[in-house]
């Protein structure tokens, strides 16, 4: 017993590591989709670990925790998120996933991998008529945008981007750059040519706004 009269064991997670990892990664996925403008139920984002385990068990099946969501601004645009489970992500794995989805309409597919993809599988994800993104499950255990030192990022619409370029009389390639492989760019699913407004707010420098173009 500690000084407060509570057993220290009560603070230790008694469930499986696997279910905890899936819970954290799925929560980040739901937050990511919400921040990209997809319709995600608040109740799912706020789901607790115990509620997650009650629904999916201590050894969740990847097929059971998949996510699909329509875009708020255009419900005909849909994203599907597939958790691929442990093991090497091979070309045969990708083909199996696509076979299961052949009767579904979607414009973007996000794959959450338990291990690195083979070179063949990685190449194949670039050859489909829809956008395919891949994340390692370990990349999603924490929401990178919630870090205390992370500045606020806002994606500009095409109209806002053109107004910015006109206001400062600059070309797109003259803006500071952000790589498409940057963790924040990947979180928001940004494509080359898109522009983000980055707002820094600190006691030392105060409020400071910059713009970055994805390359």
Automatic annotation (TrEMBL):
Residues 142-214 form the RNA polymerase subunit H/Rpb5 C-terminal domain. The keyword Nucleus applies. One of its GO terms (biological process) is transcription elongation by RNA polymerase I. InterPro entries: Arch_Rpo5/euc_Rpb5, RNA_pol_Rpb5_N, RNA_pol_Rpb5_N_sf, RNA_pol_subH/Rpb5_C, RPB5-like_sf. Residues 18-100 form the RNA polymerase Rpb5 N-terminal domain. GO terms for molecular function: DNA binding; DNA-directed RNA polymerase activity. Keywords: Nucleus. It is found in: Nucleus. Its main location: nucleus. GO terms for cellular component: nuclear DNA-directed RNA polymerase complex. Belongs to the archaeal Rpo5/eukaryotic RPB5 RNA polymerase subunit family. This is DNA-directed RNA polymerase V subunit 5A. It comes from Colocasia esculenta (Wild taro).
